[in-house]
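Allow me, if you will, to draw on your knowledge of protein folds for a short while. The matter concerns a single protein, recorded as an amino acid sequence and a row of backbone structure tokens. Could you please explain, in whatever detail you think fit, how the structure tokens follow from the sequence? I remain grateful for any guidance, and I place the record below:

…
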Amino acid sequence: MTAITSPLQPTAQPSTIREFSFPRGLAGFPEASRFAFIYEGKGNMLCMQSLEYEEASFIVTPWDTTRLGEAPALSKEQRTCLKLDQDDHIMWMLVLNPFADKTWVTANLKAPIAINEKQLMGLQCIRNDADLELRYPWMEQPSLT
């Protein structure tokens, strides 16, 4: 790996760690509140790694408005949790799962991640919408040959 950094700061020096706080943790890891991004500098996938629990590691990719439409709206409570000001930009990420399907890497549309880079805060936004897929076919599995 060449750097641990924010995906919004791809020019950061190697070994730079930008820590993001997730005060509510993530699904399955409610106690994991400190994360950093590990990015190789190519493509649009990166690793979101817990700085507290090595097993809490997720492949994430930016929300794609072309494929999915507009990103979700945040509730007032979620905006408060992220310490969002009126002008703060929200970066939306999807958690990818390369293990759920032999043909597809899937994306979790039910629980995207909202990040306020200015405040270094993140929140997994679990949505109760039956139409949203937990295993949305995101991309074909890469070939091992």
Q: What stands out?
A: Confidence is low (pLDDT under 50) at residues 1-14.
